């Protein structure tokens, strides 16, 4: 017993320390009750966390905290708080939380999730150098041509709309970034890209990946017992092969004197000036390609889903487009200025089903004080966009899809609500982490929404008796950027005359396409040739 006596104070200290781990420190925003060691980890949602986060926001307020072990998460379901902390104090809130999954896959070089360090700043400077307003405007012809290809493919194979939305968004950013388009979805390189994207999205599911970062002991699990570690290493190999090949193709074209104005060509011409190493070039391209392909394709899948579920909104938008454009030509970008309801429909889609319902988390680099709360360094800051956009205090009947709300007020909020913290591009992030490709994404969305509503009716699928089947616009997959679960709908041309105009305009874009149809396999060349004929000749 005498030998054990000296150990009693130590044991007491260990017990006190263990009891303290997981507890909410004094000064933090309130939140759900914690338990020792775990904090709130035992109730952290494993999937679709934005629903539970929004439920907690209604209980604990627009700023509340969660404890995961000894680490802290502050959830902002308040647009003003997000603006004040992430926009106005961006010098200390632009970091990202530790993201071990991404570290294993990309070695910390992926711009979207990497820490706010010198490497990120170098890469961000390179992006802003090449992604200017002028540069975006110069890429408008290929965006318009790809929009025509999307419409033309919907005439040929409307049942493929789900994957065609992916092909379109991928081909646009692939052309812009690497000067090479993707004329078909099932091409090997395109399939490989979407396989990588799917695997990364699954690994990044917040309910799983967050726990690894907040309980570092999980990182010590041997690879043979940690399937996710093996998946990360496999994904890293796939990514480097894919993006290395695209970079190599661009470098080869430059050496042959066959440049076509892609962003990567500009970057390669200034790599020494911008101080870019090989990994930076590789992952800068990866970041742009993944962000541009994923978010835009999800948006258009949601577009088809929601429009099929809400025919009354579709009819109002079509009536407006018909008044502005008429029957004899397709819309052009400048037409949107005269389409307030179509603009409202686009904004309402962003609000109703935001692509990233929890945005991408930030992290504090220094202690912050806000509204009387103390926010320590290395706190994860999550902007709950879903909760903000579905707040009944801000939006009238927020679960209803209603574009008219953006005609009543600029922000779509109830009349009289303080909407000074809202901006149209809230969905593109905050502060120094705001998406640099937002102008490119908005341009693609605007062009296609007008084209598709002008040319097509989007309807629910029908049963054997021809009765419309219910459309579930709540059925979404998991992941960091959840997409609608695959679904069926009918997409039919509004008139034969409009179908012929779409075909004519698509065939007339041949010269624009040819500029980016480089490095195609014989099979792809044959496929392209078959699509460049009138439908009447098929």
TrEMBL record:
Gene3D superfamilies: Cytochrome P450 (1.10.630.10). This is Cytochrome P450. InterPro entries: Cyt_P450, Cyt_P450_CS, Cyt_P450_E_grp-I, Cyt_P450_sf, Cytochrome_P450_fung. PANTHER family: CYTOCHROME P450 MONOOXYGENASE ALNH-RELATED, P450, PUTATIVE (EUROFUNG)-RELATED-RELATED. Belongs to the cytochrome P450 family. CDD domains: CYP64-like. It is a single-pass membrane protein. It is found in: Membrane. Pathway: Secondary metabolite biosynthesis.
